Amino acid sequence: MCLDFFRLSYISPATGIYCRGWMYIESTLDATNELLAAIISIQRHTLIFRPHLFRNTIKRYVFYYLPLLFGVIYPVAFYMGTIVFYPCDNSDWDFTSNMCGDTTCYLTKNPALAMFDWIVNTALLAIVIMLANIVLIIKVIRQRLRQQRAISWSKQRRMTIQLISISSLYLLIWIPSIIFGLIQQISPTDEIDEIQTDYVEDLTYFICLLIPWIGIGMLPDFKKWMLKQFRRLRKPPNAIGTTIVRTEAH
């Protein structure tokens, strides 16, 4: 949808239904991504320090599967009510701006609901992801020291880099969006709205693009495989030519 807008420089089709669907898909996927990342960041503590908790079938469903299911159902239901079924007309959409101006009706007509969305569904989740991963690193180090065991940084380095990378990515991506979103709720201006729509909102796509690489980059043999591919690309191709066979007459 974004690429289609950048290709045309206007929304097509210019209808409220299309914009409403776009906002629903955009908001639901963003919130689901962030909520699942927060839930998984918390569950990782249990998987590392209390793995026996998941051996019981009931506890496994309650503490593992149900939170993940909630991470999918809640954004779908919340934005179904706030975007799809919320009263709105075509005058609320801007068919000349990306994401239809990102002026979802409940954001402009219901400040309390908009504030709840920004705080609970965006800001709080970003903070949980960051703190959960940082605290996990601290807990691992403290456990090693408490057991008077030497910390094998070669073994902990991969986990530490991965968790810090994930926390930093979510922090750098969502903090600008949170700040600009709150400014728009407190003191909206056209200049801030233009910056948010044209630049800040697009930052969230970097999470989808970079998270897989953070995970893949931590695989032990990934770097070797990448170097092998680069060497293969740099290797000069075999020369292909014709061979002339000369025979002597007897």
UniProtKB/TrEMBL annotation:
Compartments reported by the entry: Membrane
Keyword presence, Transmembrane helix: yes
A single GO cellular-component term on record: membrane
InterPro entries for this protein: GPCR_Rhodpsn (IPR000276), GPCR_Rhodpsn_7TM (IPR017452)
TM region positions: 62-86, 118-141, 161-183, 203-222
The entry's keywords: G-protein coupled receptor, Membrane, Receptor, Transducer, Transmembrane, Transmembrane helix
GO molecular function, one term: G protein-coupled receptor activity
Occurrences of domain G-protein coupled receptors family 1 profile (ranges): 1-215
Bilayer topology term: Multi-pass membrane protein
Domain of life (superkingdom): Eukaryota
PANTHER family xrefs: ECDYSTEROIDS_DOPAMINE RECEPTOR-RELATED, G-PROTEIN COUPLED RECEPTOR
Stated name of the protein: G-protein coupled receptors family 1 profile domain-containing protein
